[in-house]
Amino acid sequence: MTASKDMKYRDQLLLAMLPHVLFDGWSKRALAAGAEDIGKEIADSQLVFSGGLKEVAVHFGDHMDRQMIAKLTKLNLEKMPVRDRITTGVRVRLELLAPHREAIRRLLTFMTLPGNHLVGAKITMKTVDAIWHAAGDTATDFNYYTKRGLLAGVYGSTILYWLSDHSEDFSDTYAFLDRRIGEVLKIPKIQSKIKKRLSRLAGPLRRFYRPAFR
Fold this sequence. Notes:
mainly alpha
């Protein structure tokens, strides 16, 4: 099986599994039911996802990342302020997740089980990295990790808020997202001001303490 056919089959099997997750949780039973729906053998599904349910979870994140990137590339993100680019990225992700909201709730339960925490972190970090890349970020220094770490916190808290949001068209979630993005984008500016103030103090402090160091 070629790589493209293998990916297509994995996507097909994943999407067939998701409706069963509502009743059977993120489980082998749900995966087997999905395989049966598309006329595949249960053994085939186990071979395709040889890493088990963790691998299925990672593929779910990858599938959503690919869908998200495809939508974001059709938008004129480069004409937007950075804040709007990031907000748009998260909003597009939520729109793609909306049809699978209850399945995601079951997936989060699965990721809280012992030994599964790193799976959730891996999925989240790949997603926020994809959003920053789509926003045009080219950082390679420490800022690369700072930006992704901050956005991971925003994304994670927004997902949890979204799962319990009953407002029309998730308007409360998007208001929450806007507030959180605004708070996070202030942090680099605050850090920059602190660094500038410390650099101004560094010279006088060195002169003051030089005799003591001698």
